[in-house]
Amino acid sequence: MILSEEYLQNLLDKTLPQIRATDGCAVVLEGSIAEGFGNSSSDIDFLLIADGDADLPTMPSLLFVDGRRVEVRTRSVRQIAEQFAAVTAAAANGPGAEDLLNRCQRLLRSFPLREPELVAKVKDLMSFDDFRTTVGEWWARAARQSIRYALALRQLGQEQEAAAWTEAGLLQAVKSWAAGRGETYLEPKWLPEQLGRIGDHPPAARYLTLASPSASGLGADAYVTEGVRLAADLGVTGATPEAGRITVAGAGVTTWQTGERVHVVRGRQDVFVLGDRAARAWRSLVFGRTLEQTLAAADAAGAPQAGPLIAEFLRYGLVRVAWQGDGPIVPGLPLAAPAGDVTPPPSTARPIIAVGGATAGGAEAIDLLPVPARRFSAAAMTLVWSNVLVENAREDLVGALDRGQWSVAQLSALRMLRFALRGVLSSYAVNPLPPDSEVVRRLSLLPDGDDLDAIRARAGQLDTLTIASGPQGDAALTALDDFVALVRRATGADRFPSSFDSPDAWRQTLEAGNDWLRLGAHLDADLPIDEAGDLLSSGGAQPHAASA
Asked: Is residue 493 within 8 Å of 383, Cβ to Cβ?
């Protein structure tokens, strides 16, 4: 230790009156100072051990005593026994393993300050030789996954990231190697001190020359090669670059295509829209194929050099990679921020939704939409349905003008305007929609832009139109047709069929609606009308149509 026992006892005497402590507690010093690694900035870590089965709090108390930061933790003998039993039962492989191992390690390597007999009693609950074996295996598993992931990234053309994961894997590998020599302290920052205490060994010396890509002086690819070799020499098995060992695996996402646009839904919550080239790479994926086969298939599908795209799918958790015969490759950085699927900033492409699919930012885009999946699908279904209603209102308007029914015509014209504005709001994922009586004013929710500014101005004019004669009706129909054309260009619906003109146009309308209805039903989104459920159950066909 870097502090004398006399100093520590004196500090403990000043600390105990400041906390609620059970009489007869044993006290140990644990952590970096007990290990001999600490410095003047290190915490003083006291653990109080109560001889009983009480449930004592996990959270430490933080005190400041004689200019030192003191942390006080408490455990009962029962709680300690349960921690050791959990390690023995291989719980060190599951969630929370780091905290569990850390607690056990700190106690096993602690220095007794009060009631040494009770301290010895609890330490005897776990063999240190068994514990260091467990810690070594735990670090080796982490190193194996990191090195495998580095090999996958290198194969996908991500050399710099592969080098970074190799660096992580090497640290984990040397921690495993050090644990086998009794150096079980988990915190990586003290690794140089641990290696110094182990002494002069060739693997440790090699590690120090490869501790980071920059320190090694090697290029990224060469660094990965040397790192993989050293990891194997440090005892990490099952992570050598054998051809065909890394495969592409599913990640539990669902793919939805509307027209030519491909969407990928992650966790029933996040929607990614793929640009044309990214979509070709995505559609070429066949789970179970090796990375070599996957890259060749993407090349044949019109997405050459697709490695970076597939790597992006991997980062976002849209696909996984696996080690043949040993399951998914799940890398992690123990004692660091939890690893997980990357969630990129939401796309800024506007409008968000078009009839043919979400708006993608480019051919290689893998864009996260800025709305939840259910709201996206509900807004998309409403966008399609608003266009159907525009067609229906136009048909009513034409019929009323033909019969000179000016009041009916005026109401139909107003419906046509408002249904078109439902589509505008839906294309920006406004859902649920405001009432029809407010849609003109609620255009204020949308951002500024040339198309939207023109839509706002013309909607305000059309909202006050009057139809009391044939010439007024003809002028209104022309103005509304121009307005609908403007809206459809702005919302990607310019090729929407004239739904009620012919059987073929109605069939096209049903097909466009069914693509979105399937996604909405999958996500339990609200359908725009009850009858949409019948369209879904018929697979996009008219429910009463006779079979061919």
From this structure: yes
Q: Which domain holds residue 431?
A: 373-537
Looking at per-residue pLDDT, the higher value among 311 and 86 belongs to 311
Q: Which of 168, 70, 186 is nearest to 131 (CA)?
A: 186
Q: Is the pLDDT of residue 539 over 60?
A: no
Q: Is 241 a member of any domain?
A: no
Average pLDDT, the chain: 90
Q: What is the per-residue pLDDT for 72?
A: 94
CA angle 63–66–70, rounded 5-degree value: 30
Asked, as a colleague might, if the bond just before 432 is cis with ω within 30 of 0, I would say yes
Asked if residue 93 lies in contact with residue 144, where contact means CB atoms within 8 angstroms, the answer is no
Residue 257 corresponds to which amino acid? Q
Query: Over the stretch 126-179, which tens digit does the pLDDT of each residue have?
Result: 999 999 999 999 999 999 999 999 999 999 999 999 999 999 999 999 999 999
Number of Cβ atoms within 10 Å of the Cβ of 289: 17
d(CA 224, CA 136) in angstroms, rounded, equals 22
Only one residue has tokens 């440090």, namely: 234
**Does residue 159 share a domain with residue 115?**
no
Residues 534/540, Cβ–Cβ less than 8 Å? no
Of 79, 103, 126, the residue that ends a domain is 126
Q: Are residues 39 and 113 located together in one domain of the fold?
A: yes
Q: Kindly state whether residues 490 and 393 are assigned to the same domain.
A: yes
Contact 483, 458 (CB under 8 A): yes
> Cα–Cα distance between 242 and 263 in angstroms, integer?
34
d(CA 339, CA 145): 12
Average pLDDT over residues 356-380: 94
Residues with Cβ < 8 Å from 99, sequence gap 6 or more? none
- Residue 138's pLDDT is what? 93
Least confident span in 165-169, 238-242, 498-502: 498-502
Do 352 and 464 sit in the same domain of this protein?
no
* Per-residue model confidence as pLDDT tens digits over 176-234: 999 999 999 999 999 999 999 999 999 999 999 999 999 899 999 999 999 999 999 99
Nearest 5°: CA angle at 417, between 412 and 418?
95
Give the total number of structural domains in the chain: 4
Could you give the CA distance from residue 36 to residue 388 in angstroms, rounded to a whole number? 76
CA–CA dist 546, 548 (Å, integer): 6
Residues 414 and 482 grouped into a single domain:
yes
Distances 98 to 231, 383, 501 between C-alpha atoms, Å: 21, 49, 67
Tokens for 273, please give them: 């829209």
> Are 149 and 27 contained in the same domain?
no
- Does residue 59 form part of some domain? yes
